[in-house]
Amino acid sequence: MSDKLENLYREILVEIGEDISRNGILDTPKRAAKAMKFLTHGYEQDLDEVVNGAIFDSDNDAMVIVKDIELYSMCEHHILPFIGKVHVGYLPTGKVIGLSKIARIVDMFARRLQIQENLTKQIAHAVQDVTGAAGVGVIVEAKHMCMMMRGVEKQNSVMTSSTMLGQFRSSQNTRNEFLTLIEKR
Ligand SMILES: Nc1nc2c(ncn2[C@@H]2O[C@H](COP(=O)(O)OP(=O)(O)OP(=O)(O)O)[C@@H](O)[C@H]2O)c(=O)[nH]1
Ligand SMILES: [Zn+2]
User: Which GO biological process annotations does it have (predicted)?
Assistant: First the structure.
């Protein structure tokens, strides 16, 4: 763990008016640095490492969906959490990806500073790249702490973003099948 991040957190605590010598705060710079490194560990990952070769031959060409993947990310504007769910669907063309790897791909991008739209797009393109699918659909639904805890202070708005690639974009039937299966229609 870099001491630099720890020192920067110490400076932040001083700047916000904390007494960094009080008992409960003493180890906070170290803890906060460790937490921040965890929350942004996606910067240290790449797609090959995350997928780890888990691409398998399959003659199934029916739509595969993984829905309700938990999402914990942080917005690049305020470094505050946005939390929600990701739904991913794809149309295999001879190759399927290990089930857990879709969630790992979501996490790799989520554990970087993001805006939700870009996160959605990155997940879709990564699934497309590793599977060679005929199409990919990704929908992200999330609540943004920067809108809830501060700023406009709206507690019930949920942002929905979607990326549709290939057949999910060109065929309304494919898109409808996806939306029906994730119960968005
Ligand atoms: N489109 C999009 N906007 C986001 C996301 N996360 C945060 N934002 C928005 O980014 C914008 C930044 O606006 P600014 O006016 O520069 O910053 P600000 O003064 O902190 O804005 P307020 O949040 O309105 O107080 C705000 O409207 C946020 O709601 C995201 O994932 N996608
Ligand atoms: Zn924000």
Answer: one-carbon metabolic process; tetrahydrobiopterin biosynthetic process; tetrahydrofolate biosynthetic process
